[in-house]
Amino acid sequence: MNKAQGSLEYLLLIGGGVLIAAIVIMFLLSTSDSASSNVQATAGILSNYHQGIQTCDGQFEIERVMITNNGSSVENISIDETKIIQKIELIQVSPIEHFDQSYSVFIDGTNLGTETDYPSATESLSFEELNTTVNSPDFTFKITSSGTWQAEFNAILILCDE
């Protein structure tokens, strides 16, 4: 009986160790996923600042706006002082099913350009060298598309000081 009791205790210890190891592995995997997304977000912000430094001669500001486009969407963006929009980048957040649609960007009703949708869901649309002045306290940012299907974008606007 003593040998059987020792074997049972041994098996319970091994089972407990395996259970604890599985819990630790699951925790590490979930932590690495969130750390990976945090690293990607930080890399995106650093990339935006690098673009701002390259685009503007002096001080600049970066506005990030989440936009859900269903054919047309409008956002009002508040600013403290008059700025010059040099670049607008649209980064697709949610995948769309239809490609080859065109997107137009408007600031205060003025069309700044039209671009055709990306060849793949990982790229972005850029509107560069816009040199468009916007006045405080706010301006209207509008995106229209040739299709009516829904897509989510992270819009990044680089605003240079005058």
Q: Spans of 5+ residues with little confidence (pLDDT < 50)? A: none
Alpha-carbon distance between the two ends: 88 Å
Shape: elongated
CATH topology of the largest domain: Jelly Rolls
The percent range for strand residues is 35-45%
Number of helices: 1
Mean pLDDT: 76
- Please compute the radius of gyration using only Cα atoms: 25 Å
Which structural category do the helix and sheet elements fall into? alpha+beta
Annotate the secondary structure layout.
Elements: H1 2-55, E1 60-69, E2 72-78, E3 83-92, E4 102-107, E5 110-116, E6 124-134, E7 138-145, E8 151-161
Antiparallel strand pairs: 1-8, 2-7, 3-6, 3-8, 4-5, 4-7
Could you please describe the fold and organization of this structure?
By secondary structure, the protein is α+β, with helices and mostly antiparallel strands. It folds into 2 domains: 55 residues; 104 residues, Jelly Rolls. Helix content is 33%, strand content 43%. The chain contains 1 helix and 8 strands. A hairpin with a 2-residue loop joins strand 4 and strand 5.
Which features characterize this protein?
alpha+beta, 33% helix, Jelly Rolls, 162 residues, elongated, four-stranded antiparallel beta sheet
